[in-house]
Amino acid sequence: MTRFLGLAKVNKSNKPKFLYAFNILPAKKFDYIELVRQTANPISSDNPYSSSFNLKNEDGSKYFGDHDAQPSLQYFYDADYIQKMNELQEQEMLKQKRKLEAMQKQAQEPCWFCLGGSKVERQYIVSVGDKCYLAYAKGALNKDHLLIIPINHVQSSVQAEQELMEEIAKYKLALAKFFKSKKKCVLFYERNYRTKHMQIQVYGIRADKTYLLKDAFMSMAQDQDICLNEIPQMTNLKQIMEPNRPFFYLEIPNEELHDGSRGEMDTTRYLCEIRGGFPINFGRDVMASELLLNCADRIDWKECVVSLEEEKKMTQDFRKEFKMFDPAL
């Protein structure tokens, strides 16, 4: 595509524009649809001249090479080109329509985590509060892997109401006290990416491994080009995150958690604002690493699903142990 630019002479008295800055991207770097869109500008027209300007056939007629455009009766309206553009637009509209229909269908399907929904697997539920509930994760990494989940449909903590977040804080504190009684620390994270319902992952881990948590997460984040930034202790995510922005939020307990010098919820907080792709199993991968739980064979949750009887027993056992800490009782 060729562009004509009319510029004035330099330093004319009435100061007309005599400079023009180009920002040129080679055509080979455009995808086909973008290239068509660029060349479909209303002020553009096809080149009326062939690249074989002065060549002629033996009979005197104009010569056209294999890649030259054949002569057209008009230069400023190509019916074939317009038809092709219309077909491309129709295909794109159909693609967007199907995508929208798929999203609407997915939105109408029952949620796996809404407590009143038909898909909730109640054998995992440990405790039910007014706004949220505590449950085992399906395909849990170990017996100290749980979820804090809103009872009603909430996308993320950024969209959660204050009463819900206050009750979640109570469950976090209760879990910290519970795991402390087992000589363990507790870690929390939330991934608001490719999920419809808010879930806070809960992991209990031996207290003597507390100091390894930051290094484990930071090391894997660096390996996977993930930017985990520490945020101030009292910062509310709603103050720094847009409601629909994907993110990964992490709370790591400090080493002082178990020496009695500070409160149970003394944590360091990290946030990753997701602007492109993100590894869905990032948190689970870190926890399963050799440095922490050393169970790489359990990274895939589908490989960790147990029988219904085992699920019920695991939940009942945890419920009994957690009873004296349960904020819902």
Q: What's a concise summary of this model?
A:
The chain is 29% helix and 15% strand.
Number of β-strand runs: 8
Percent in helix: 25-40%
- How are the strands of the biggest sheet laid out side by side? 1-2-3-5-4-7-8-6
- The backbone outline, from C-alpha atoms, is elongated
Distance between the termini: 73 Å
- What is the number of helices? 7
Which radius of gyration do the C-alpha atoms yield?
31 Å
Strand content: 5-15%
Query: Mean pLDDT across all residues, rounded?
Result: 83
Structural class designation: alpha+beta
Detailed description of the structure:
The protein has 329 residues and is of the alpha+beta class. The chain has seven helices and eight strands; from the N terminus they run ααβββαββαβαββαα. An eight-stranded antiparallel beta sheet has the order 1-2-3-5-4-7-8-6. Strand 4 and strand 5 form a beta hairpin. The chain starts with 31 loop residues before the first helix and ends in a 7-residue tail after the last helix.
